[in-house]
Amino acid sequence: MSANIFLHELRQLRRSFVTWSAALLAVIFVFFSLFTSFTKDAALMNELLARFPQELRAAFGLANMDLATIEGYFAFSFVFCQLLMAIQAAGYGFGLLSLDESELRADFLLSKPVSRPNILTSKLAAALVSLLITNLALTLGTFSAIALFWGETVYNPGAILLVLLSGFLFQLVFLGVSLALSLTARRIHSVTPYALGLAFGTYVLNAFSGVIGEVKLELLTPFKHFDPGYIVRHQAFDTPFVLADMALVIIAVGLSYWLYQHRDIPAV
Amino acid sequence: MRVIEVNGLTKYYGKSRGIVDVSFEVEEGEIFGFIGPNGAGKSTTIRLLLSLIHPTSGSARLFGKDILSAGAGLRQDIGYLPSEVFYYEDMKVIDLLKYSASFFKGDCSKRITELSDLMELELGRRIRDLSYGNKKKVGIVQGLLHSPKLLFLDEPTSGLDPLMQRKFFDLIRRENERGVTVFFSSHILGEVQRLCSRVGIIREGRLVEVSDIRSLQQNNYKKIRLNVSGENPVSAELPGISNLQNENGSVQFFFRGDINTILRKLASTDVKDISIEEPSLEEIFMHYYE
Predict the structure, then answer these.
(1) pLDDT tens digits along A135-188
(2) I need a labelling partner for A257 at 20 to 30 A (CA). Which of A64, A232, B43, B164 fits?
(3) Phi and psi based region of residue B14 (left: phi greater than 0; alpha: psi -120 to 50; beta: remaining)
(4) pLDDT tens per residue, range B182-200
């Protein structure tokens, strides 16, 4: 790894992780501020939800959610955080190497006495640190919000922490997969559509495949593998899925190193 | 010592041609001109030598080391000025140059100041606010700040005003006097003529000629213009004659070969006026593209 590339890349990401952290905190605070009105009628709400068809509840991420507890409500809110986190991580993955090429400055970096694996490692490290900072901000924000809105209420911080931890692993999947995808394209002109496409695509796959019927498409999406409702209820990850995802990340990143090493950098 | 050795280097982008079977050598301390129109394969050759792209076949050595196996350390002594310069738009010039310098051994800050002063580059401005010419200057300083032993210049003068071009040429000459080998790609023959000692001509991906710039000019061709009153004595069938033009008794052609044969031929004609001169490199060059 090269410290100069790492620091340079981290500086380039500075505005990004500040913005994403702020957006995630906003989601948490908005949802939590609505919670008081939810809890008053939580029992009623749960009862009402139970009457909806299972498919509809699944589609809105409400299956297996206990909205009466802090953990349950947090799990419900976290799905929306996941959507943002997926966009952030996919954006990093797609942009990590392609931005240099689409903004035509790849020649600058690659004509320096530094190997491509070294460049990729340094850039990956910067992206990981940026994601870690975002997750840290989200963790601190979540516990502050809980203290702020509920003060005395008893809850299970372990379950909350587990969900928050899952957020980082969840992002690794999007980072790794989108990085590998970006290297299979000859040129990526703009990162945002790809990142949005991957994030919303996998989200919708999870939300609506239950509605469609028997085909278990949702098994393909990290939104299913890292279902915060499941984590809160079981106080554990859905281990086989999470392990499979981590294996996928390793394969995707390994593949990325190979593809990058053999890549022809497109000329102007 | 041979600084650049290229052996049968070939690059195809899928099915489209990059360069085909290009071989040449550049000795240490040379300024080697690489000439050809746009799309001939000049940039492809440079980008192959810098390992930005990978060859389909063939091999190349820089400083005696194979480019595929030597690793990134090889580029420690190489400076590169791309034909189009693009950098991190939101960075200040000085920060970009420092970032660039951080990849190389040794302290480059003195060189940065010297070169920027020479090229009249303002270090405090943001890259995004720079004109094309000024970005090019950033590229020049960026390519030279680590005192490389081998310089790749890809169409270096586009965007520079004539005054800057002259300063730039002086700079390259000075570097060359220090022993720096220069690989200078261009489609403008005048500047190659001014700067280079040898020249390679590339056409549609193939190297058609590598030649000393003087011998290319002197030994091969004469440009002959005649004014005759009677019948035109020369015809295109004569050996060595090319580009024959005939307008109302004013005849012009290139001749290559023993000059006596053409003089004997002319001696029997009533010539009103004659001029025999060196063709410009431009004219020789056009010859390769017919």
Answers:
(1) 999 999 999 998 888 777 788 889 999 999 999 999 999 999 999 999 998 888
(2) B43
(3) left
(4) 999 988 777 887 888 899 9
Burial class (CB in 10 A: 0-12, 13-18, 19+), A12: middle
Query: How many angstroms separate the CA atoms of A72 and B194, rounded?
Result: 78
Mean pLDDT, to the nearest integer, of A197-204?
91
Q: Which residues of B touch A (CB under 8 A)?
A: 13, 43-44, 47, 50-54, 71-76, 78, 80, 82-84, 86-89, 99-100, 102-104, 142
Q: What is the C-alpha separation between A206 and B284, in angstroms, rounded? A: 68
In chain B, what is the straight-line distance between the N-terminal and C-terminal CA atoms, in Å?
36
User: Are the C-beta atoms of A230 and A210 separated by less than 8 Å?
Assistant: no
Q: How confident is the model over A64-88, as pLDDT tens digits?
A: 666 778 888 899 899 999 999 999 9
Q: In this predicted structure, what is the pLDDT of residue A38?
A: 65
Average pLDDT over residues B26-55: 92
Extract the tokens encoding B179: 């022993």
Indicate if the pLDDT at residue A56 is higher than 70: no
Write phi, then psi, for B3 (nearest 5 degrees). Answer: -85, -40
Integer Cα distance of A87 and A199 in angstroms: 5
Q: Which residues lie below 8 Å from residue B67, measured CB to CB, with a gap of 6+?
A: B48, B49, B51, B59, B60, B61, B74
Q: What's at B227, amino acid-wise?
A: N
B231-258 burial by CB neighbour count: b if 16+ within 10 A, else e?
Answer: eebbeeeeeebebbeeeeeebebbbeee
Would you give the distance in Å from CA B168 to the centre of its chain? Answer: 15
Shortest distance between the Cα of B33 and any Cα of chain A, in A, equals 21
Distance from CA of A115 to the nearest CA of B (A): 5
Looking at residue A232, its amino acid is V
Cα–Cα distance measured from residue B135 to residue B130, given in angstroms and rounded to the nearest whole number:
6
Instruction: Enter the tokens of residue B5.
Output: 């050795």
Instruction: Specify whether the CB–CB gap between A65 and A31 falls below 8 A.
Output: no
Contacts of B50 in chain A (CB under 8 A): 110-111
Cα–Cα distance for residue pair B138/B164, rounded to 1 Å:
13
| Cα dist from A119 to A2, A171, A261, whole Å | 7, 21, 10
Q: What is the pLDDT of residues B84-99, one digit of tens each?
A: 888 888 899 999 999 9
Q: How far apart are CA A16 and CA A88, in angstroms?
A: 8
